[in-house]
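Per your request, structure below.
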């Protein structure tokens, strides 16, 4: 038999069924995977299909919508409504939640950013999709079913569209697993098993938008200066894509730290809690990393413990391995701020 062909391909559907025995969850992940394939196709053909540029609208958080934002959003909504297992959908691109008609409703509530980093799409930079899944608590799903902390999130993940299409997701309390889209069979195949942060901290990389430096609090400035000037005589390398999926994916694989803190300009942070902060926090923590809010609302806490007070509320984020998040915590300690142990 040729080694180029796997006669027993470990697909996403098989993995979900084996680990949950829940047919409805298999349907949900299959519907998400279908939308990811559609989005990947649209992203790959954006140039020839004239999909670059603005759609002429703004989304729920005031960002200009690109044509691909609108298309990706429609692809995800259509796939999830048609799945028959969702009751409430929340998208970054929609001001209000989407309540699935009763005859198509199921037990899951899904929040998602259909095309994270789309401001970069016109210059062909990596983009992605982020999602979190909750289960409704009553007979009919409501927005309140999504306004819960990461402790109630049953699974979360992201899909990165680049030289390969990679889906990374985790069940709450489980391992972080990676699947790569095999275009020859049209399936996501299990390629990264039990993804973990490098034990030694990995590469010395810090990732942040230093254009906001003047707005940061002093401990964050001090931490970034420490990375730049060197720790143990070894300066860190700066890498910042501006697409959260790309920056987090690199941080997870290579090590390092990703920082988007609260600051004077954005006192509540910039990234959305429900469909960016919480799902990424679950992935980072279950891969052996730290997902911190930094100093926020009078204390330093975990992103996964935040309870969203609105579907589009924001939160600050400091995510990385213990080695590098420890540098930030040390700067908070020097400033007299109570800091949790790693």
């Amino acid at each position: 038999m040729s080694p180029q062909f796997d006669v027993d391909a470990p697909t996403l559907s098989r993995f979900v069924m084996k680990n949950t025995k829940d047919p409805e969850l298999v349907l949900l992940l299959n519907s998400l995977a279908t939308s990811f394939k559609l989005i990947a196709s649209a992203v790959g053909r954006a140039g020839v299909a004239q999909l670059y540029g603005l759609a002429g609208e703004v989304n729920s958080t005031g960002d200009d919508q690109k044509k691909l934002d609108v298309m990706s959003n429609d692809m995800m909504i259509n796939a999830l409504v048609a799945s028959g297992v969702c009751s409430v959908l929340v998208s970054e691109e929609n001001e209000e939640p989407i309540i699935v008609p009763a005859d198509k409703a199921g037990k899951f509530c899904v929040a998602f950013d259909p095309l994270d980093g789309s401001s970069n799409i016109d210059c062909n930079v990596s983009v992605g999709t982020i999602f979190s899944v909750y289960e409704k608590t009553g007979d009919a799903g409501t927005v309140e079913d999504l306004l819960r902390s990461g402790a109630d999130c049953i699974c979360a993940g992201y899909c990165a569209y680049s030289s390969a299409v990679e889906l990374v997701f985790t069940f709450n309390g489980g391992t972080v697993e990676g699947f790569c889209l095999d275009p020859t069979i049209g399936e996501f195949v299990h390629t990264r098993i039990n993804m973990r942060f490098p034990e030694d901290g990995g590469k010395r990389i810090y990732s942040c938008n230093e254009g906001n430096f003047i707005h940061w609090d002093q401990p964050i400035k001090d931490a970034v200066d420490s990375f730049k000037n060197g720790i143990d005589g070894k300066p860190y390398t700066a890498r910042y894509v501006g697409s959260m999926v790309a920056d987090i994916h690199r941080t997870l694989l290579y090590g390092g730290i990703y920082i988007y803190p609260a600051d004077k300009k954005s006192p509540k942070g910039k990234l959305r809690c429900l469909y960016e902060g919480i799902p990424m926090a679950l992935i980072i923590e279950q891969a052996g990393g730290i997902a911190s809010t930094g100093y926020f609302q009078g204390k330093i806490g975990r992103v996964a413990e935040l309870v969203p007070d609105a579907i589009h509320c924001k939160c600050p984020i400091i995510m990385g391995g213990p080695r590098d998040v420890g540098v930030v915590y040390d700067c908070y300690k020097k400033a007299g701020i109570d800091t949790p142990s790693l």
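The chain has a mean pLDDT of 92.

Regards,
D.
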